[in-house]
Amino acid sequence: MKYMFKWRLWVIVFLSTLGFIVKFIGGYLYCSKALFVDALTNIANIIALVATVYYYLKAYIPPDSDHHFGHYRLGFAGTLITIIIYAFIAGVVVCDLLHVREYTVKQEAPILALLGLLLYSSVVYLSRTVSEYLTVYGLFTVSEVLESIIVIVASALGYLYTYIIDYVGATIIALYILYELQHHLKYIIKLLSDIAPPVKLVNSVRMTVEKYGVKVKRIRLRLVKNGLYQGDIVVSFPPNTTVKEAHEISNMIERELKDKYNVDVVVHIEP
Asked: pTM score, two decimals?
């Protein structure tokens, strides 16, 4: 499994870098502003990938004296860096588009845009099969695929008719980047806001606890990362339960919830 992850990761890095090179050549040497703007987003894409992978590895460091609950949320630092980098590139692109100069799009530009589309389609697929920490990176890479489609059309028509069509294509890409930024910023805020799990999971946790013959007084769970929850459960035992029995049952509840639902909880005992 670990070998497959590393293999896919290196393929993603290689394809992303190759996609940038192809689009940069098409935009800079063959004078397509749409393709050049697309290439700038690819720079952000590669930097974001490096940051995402770095913090993905950090997320699986075992708990220590500074992080008692583990390092899971460090994995989302890569996501935040991705958003920051794309915001910077969006600013650069907008500034570039404000300075309009007449130019001539060459016929090689749409061909290289098509090649870039094929490369980034592969990156999107691989990103979504590696880890949830690569999800936002993969979603931004979806934008690269959509941008490539726009660039193919804009650069081809820009070559055949007028550079203005190519310029409009670049403007559409810039607007789409801004839209994606606000959309994914909302996504990461929601993910980091200690959102509770679905009601169905909470009910399943409650039923699992109650089958041990205890009364559930309170359940508090929060999302740590996709598929992992942490929290606490307050329970009360029948009056004839000894302290030793109560602790043994509490430990059994904690183990079952971890094994069955990947819910890491502490069971508090109250009268």
From this structure: 0.71
